[in-house]
Records
---
Amino acid sequence: MLKKFFSCRVCRGITLPLLAAVIWLPNAHRFFDQPASNYIAGAKAPPKAMAIAGRHIRLWTDPELRKLELEKMRSRNAEWDFMARCFFVWSLANMGLRDPSLTATVLPVMDSIIDETIKLEQQHGIHFFLMPYSRISEFKLQPERSIFIDGEIALMLGLRRLLEEKEEYKKLHRDRIDIMLERMQKSPVLCAESYPDESWLFCNSIALASIKVGDYLDGTDHSEFFARWLESAKANLIDKETGLLVSSFDFEGKRISDGPEGSTIWLVAHCLKLLYPEFAAEQYNLATKHLRTSMGYFGYAYEWPGGTGHDDVDSGPIIPLLNLSAGSTGLAFVGAATFGDREYLAALYRSLELGAFPVYDSLGVRYCASNTVGDAVLLYSMALGPAWEKIMKGRPADE
């Protein structure tokens, strides 16, 4: 009798969750679906973007809030402090380009962030925004510089100038571009160091984009360098198994440290679209083939092709069984938005609403499972478009 009772209990214990899953999963997306207009921009920035931007503007205009937030990020990773600044400034530039009525609001915020970031770099040196291992050995090129720092500051300066020219930033932008070009061309694979003897494609692709922005603004022409860079990347930096660009390598390009990874390739494809649209689209399509995945209606991304591999500071924690990478999934929003992949974008947003726990308050919105840099990346995915479109069209003949 007891055996029969136990068998029935076990049967019910297995059957009821299965029944619940059968009923719940096909309908779960209905609870987390939202109109695309909430997160895809039209003539103006979407409501979600305005809510995230509102909170970030408060953080950057309230000294106490900013101090608390930056201390929290820097205690974990100084790069997060730096990248939160950059992605937010890039977002504001695109929002202003899309909706000129926002320009007067966003320009002072952009200038404040740019000025403080450059001031901190000047006062404390490049290591202030780098992880501690940047001090363990020497950069191959001296004096020491990081293309991570140079590229992202240059893109902040360039997109600010694209929104509205500022003479003070023109020289700062041009000087930074000249330094990057000089150092990139000293590498056999035309990629400068982010860390000592460590070149990251993430950083070098941002540098390329910032140089292209400079060409548009100042009438310079680095098309020959861009052509050589692409030829070199195809010859030296493509993973033979997947066809994807690798992530990191030594200064000489002889030793690959990290193969293709999601926390790099989605952003790389976004940046390269500005220079090599067809190649960038190919890389995005390969990334979706090897990294895009889902659980029912909920989309996310692997860090490594096929979902195998370890977690690291770039991937963030990788959730077991699902192999969900926070870093790759976050930047997949940027990739999907860049290439108009609305199906994947919708699946990613369902996952965001399910698992990131949005909290709305008087400041705007934040995601409890994210942080300031994660929210800034998300904002950029909603804002991007106008800057790249303007540059790819080229200057009107009468300018």
Note: Strands lie at 199-200, 248-249, 256-258, 292-295, 298-301, 318-319, 324-325, 358-361, 364-367.
---
Amino acid sequence: GRAEGEPQLWSRVAFVGGVITLVFGAIAGIADGALAFGAENIDDGSMQALMYVSLYGFTNLAFAAGLFMLAASLVIWQTGALWRWTGVLGAIAGLLAVISLLGILDESSDDIFDILGFFGFIGLALWLLTISICMLLMQEEPVAAARRQT
């Protein structure tokens, strides 16, 4: 946010996307945990409902992670606060993850949208690794573009 300057719009969108990612991850994880530990004690209808909660939780998780990556990558690209190519990597992975939300429209769990979501998650892992390395190597805290020019 400091590198972006006021009103820090895209930094805030990235923050909200990150929080929503955690929420959907928890929802999907809870459903999977209930399936893993209670599969022998629940009826078929309940099992199917938990499977749908898990599916939609992970699908929405990919969308939220994509929103997080797209917004943060836009800030990275605009400000140069981190390596600019990490902004490109995050934008590509984020776009794949956001598009994967369309998988909800199809009842199949193995369509092209799920494959895009998979590559979005791989991209998220690579993106987080690269920006973490970049942040560890930084000598100074980034400043807003308006203050950099003066």
Note: The longest helix spans residues 44-79.
---
Amino acid sequence: EFPFTSKKEKKELIRRANWLYKEVIVEDPEELIAKMPEQIGRQFQGQWAIYACSMTACALCNLIRLYPELQDKYMGNVVRLIDQTNTPTIRYYDTEWWKEDALDSLDGDASHMTYISILAWMIGNYRLAGGDGRYDILHKKLCDTLNRRMLASHDLNLPSFPNGVIFLPDMMFSGLALKDYDLICGKTYHSTISKWLCNLKTYYIEPRTGLLASTIFRNRSLGRVSGAYSGLNTTGLSLLDMQFGEEQMQRLKERLTITFGKYAAIKEYLTKAPKFTFDIDAGPVVYGISPSGTAFALGAATFVGEWELREKLLNTARLAGGNVRYGKYQHYRLADIMLTGEAITLAMRTMVNFDAKEL
């Protein structure tokens, strides 16, 4: 059953959004970076900070589209999140990796894929939610740059880091950024997106699981499948190509989903379930369960209308994450140390197919 007509669901989503943008929007971007776990190091703190900004903006834009009366309350916060992301401080992690500023080198050939695609995706969400034209020129420049660099690559994939390794979950944001631009402005990049998706289906399905590979190394070998990466891949593919996404959702359910009663979760590993370990992308893995994988899978479940699975994943989030509620605020207790996880969960939980007939 479509959950967003429920007053209870709406009130909870608003309380979570209130807490989230209060924490993520800061006067000095360094404050946000300092909220990321210190143990992961300054560069990954920067990368997690951009995820916190982008996922919060996505959640707010989704809520505006679900409940248009929230537009006046939330749109200004989306602007602040985009402007906060478009600062040298937030993209410092990317500058350190590539030894040049991403926006000062749009005419160049270095990838900068993760930063450029996420910023472009944020602007696309803003425009789709009814935002004004203040970012139109920047949006076009970012998408043109992504498109040109993808076409210059032999398989239309771009590396996340200078070491040349391709992370397909990161590439989802490139595809989504270009697709959103096409939804707004017409089929500018349709050919690139179609060719890229065809390449993914043809060359990069991991044979043991049927899931899209997580990483592609320089020798073209495929990295291991993981819950965190597969959760994001499945959500991205659902938004880009419904049939492809639904196929991947079935593989995700078969190979990486654990269901126990009214709970469900995504495993981080195919063949092991450590009592506790920490993964830079999955977060704290407890008994093999991937926090990031479970959160990202919410997006695919919501988009394709797998409402029973969505509720079971949310039940697990409530159980594992804990709940804190006071006044007009609500968040998972785990967000006190994993703020980005709260942002991802709210964005994925509201990842509605706005073209679906029931809307």
Note: The chain has a mean pLDDT of 94.
